[in-house]
Amino acid sequence: MEHVDRCVVLVDAGYLLGAAASLLAGEPARARITVDHAALVRQLRECAEADTRLPLLRIYWFDGAPGRSPQPEHRRLRVLPRVTVRLGALTRSDGRWAQKGVDAAMHTELTELSRNRACSDIVLVTGDGDLLPGLMSAKEHGVAVHLWAVQAADGDYNQSEDLVAEADERRVLDRAWITRAIRAKELGGSCAPPPVPRPEIAAILSAPLPESGLSSAERAAAPADAAPAPPPGRTGTGTRGRARAPVRAEAASRSPHANRNRSTRGSAAATPTGRRTGKGPPESR
Q1: Which domains occur in the chain, in start order?
Q2: What pTM value is reported for the model?
Q3: How many CA atoms lie within 13 A of 69 on its CB side?
Q4: Measured in Å, how far apart are the chain's first and last C-alpha atoms?
């Protein structure tokens, strides 16, 4: 029985999306990316048919799910043409999620396709070295195996070295290819939150300011280079007598009676007896 001239794509979704998240968001968490699954499937089909020069039979999408129950993304995928979804378990251990049974399901499908001569070329999108026996079995049945990798974030390999060595053809899905269907999510807020001061600094900042002679409105209206007002009872010279002298002079200039009385007292103080001299005008009787 001869092989049918068509290709099949086997996708390890945990590898594809985790490596894409590492490349685009800096960490393998799939929650950090958004995926256009229809566009991604279309790209996989076009690329597989171009590389193998054969029509596509089917894309198998292998992924983990809690309780093996289809998630919304799996429901979207399995209604697309030429797509079959195979689910393994998804368990949490030591704070991390891990797929269980996905590599075994991929191994079984890879072996059955090659043994039944359902296709002549198989494209593997994975990095798991556990698929090495299935890959070697497919080659023994005359199937050409194409191994695709997602561009590694650190520029190194993110696949099993033995898997890479045994593949017939290799291809790297680079950033430009990935970003056509996968995007990194925007973080909520571009500015970092302001630092919280230490308790002792917060106590200093919240303490009331000392009172001053000027109100806050007066301080705001005063020019920046103006000298501060002196305390009550002092002037800029620091001498009490000088501070009051202008006041007496001003008061004297306002009161003519005070000037006349002061001049009269000065004339009386000129004679020891206090009597008037003949130089003044005669008194009227």
Answers
A1: 7-184 (3.40.50.1010)
A2: 0.65
A3: 3
A4: 164
